Amino acid sequence: MSDRKEPIVSDIQISADDAPRRSSPAAPVASSKSSPLAALMAGVAVIAAAGLAVLAYGQHQQLTDMSQQLQQQSQALNKLEQQLSATDEDANVSLQAVRATQKMHMSEIRKLWDVSNKRNKADIASNAKGVKEVRGALKKQQSSSEQSRQALKKELQTVDATLAKLATDVKALKSDQSGNNLKQQLQALQQQVQQQQASLASVTAAELRSGQNTEALQMLEKQLQQHSQQLRDQQVVITSLRQQVAALRPQIQP
Hints:
Layout: H1 36-175, H2 179-202, H3 205-209, H4 214-252
Helix pairs in contact: 1-2, 1-4, 2-4
């Protein structure tokens, strides 16, 4: 801000022309020839001169006071302008410092955002890949569980058919009186039982636990246990039949 200077009013000096002219001493008048009118005029002139002198002095004093006030106001204005100029300079310096600080902060924020963005993109890509792998493994496990369930169901059907055939064969063995046929049938039954046991043993516990439908697998396990119990019962029957065959063999041989 440019320094503004108010015009300073200098002390006003009253010139000799402005000063009240004092009447020169009147010429001596002969006391014998003076009149009352002349004395009156002289008194009026003296009073007027005194009044003009007092008035001029008062005006001079007022002008002097006003000049001093103007000087004081001018000094106050100059001081205020200096303060405003200093304040303006400080404000400019502070504004520049604030802008520099803001620029630095924005630069740091951009750097942090770039680093966070890159890291987040990498994490998102890694998580997406992991989710994809988990979904693939889950789908594969579901497919394997479904295959195991179907295989187990097929084995159960085969066991049911074998048990039905065993029951029929047992009935046939009970009614058959031929020792050789009875022996052959017993051997065939033993082979079928061994095959069914081997087939049931091939179904591992891991395959039974890999299915999502736990209740269905538990039911299948119960059915397997029931069928195993039936096979054991059939084994007992076969053992009993074998004993009967052994008892009948001496009678059948000539």
